[in-house]
Amino acid sequence: MTPNELHNLVLKFEGSKEDYERLLACFQSGELESLLQLPVEEVRLVSAPSETTAPTTAIAQSLETVPQILQRIYNSLESGWQSIEALLAPESPTLAAGWRSAPPLPTQVLELKEARSSLTPSEGFMRWINLDLPEINRQIILIVALMPGESPQEIDALIEVRPTQEQAFLPPDLQLMVIDYRGSVVLSARAEKADPRISFALTGTVGEPFEVKVKLNDFSYLQEFPL
Predict the structure, then answer these.
(1) Global pTM?
(2) Around Cβ 198, how many Cβ atoms within 10 Å?
(3) 7, 63 Cβ separation under 8 angstroms
(4) Most CB within 10 Å of its CB: which of 7, 20, 53, 169?
(5) How far apart are CA 131 and CA 139, in angstroms?
(6) Domain membership of residue 13 as a residue range
(7) How far is CA 94 from the centre of its chain?
(8) How many structural domains comprise the chain?
């Protein structure tokens, strides 16, 4: 298998011949790309229906690579998200020292590279956003870093919540969750009385989007990352 073939994303759909014809019509009109939010190269039949009611399988193939996916996610984040470079700037010594002294993680090298602005979004990026917690009149910072994984079909992620410079610890009972494309919580942690941060390091597979959720009592924030 060539490197280009490894970058291909193949989606399989099963149904009747009429379902396949509707899918093909959606592809030809451009509606399929709009629905999937992915460039689609072709739609084809891979197993013809038998005389019985055996299902038909169609394939929608995308040539979007991991760098293109990272660039797309970077561009899709809301305007409130900023570059991590601002968080690590010299005028914020407390935060800069705190981030660099965090426990080693697989993406630790990315943190330092981003501080020197050495990465483009398509190679990997870090973004952060301030979240207001109105019930307790405080703010926290949600940080997400994404970069290519070890294989062409993987994306590594670092997800963290931490207090702002005015506070030493997260509010107790604050929850950080990672939710997979099936809606299942795959990672979850709750802040204790004196937790300075909650961090997750994980690897995702292209084509399996995930969501990051921050929750405290009635406050809830959800951000999707469409891999």
Answers:
(1) 0.64
(2) 21
(3) yes
(4) 20
(5) 5
(6) 3-62
(7) 27
(8) 2
Do 133 and 52 lie in one domain? The reply is: no
What is the rounded CA–CA span in Å between residue 90 and residue 3? 41
> Which of 16, 42, 62 represents a domain boundary (last residue)?
62
Q: How many residues does the chain have?
A: 227
164/216 same-domain check: yes
Contact 146, 122 (CB under 8 A): no
Same domain for 184 and 87: yes
The gap from C-alpha 7 to its chain's centroid, in whole angstroms, comes to: 18
* 3-class secondary structure, 178: strand
Degrees to nearest 5, angle at CA 193 with 165 and 134: 55
The DSSP 8-state label assigned to residue 187 in this structure reads E
Token pair for 37: 């939010």
Same-domain check for residues 145 and 198? yes
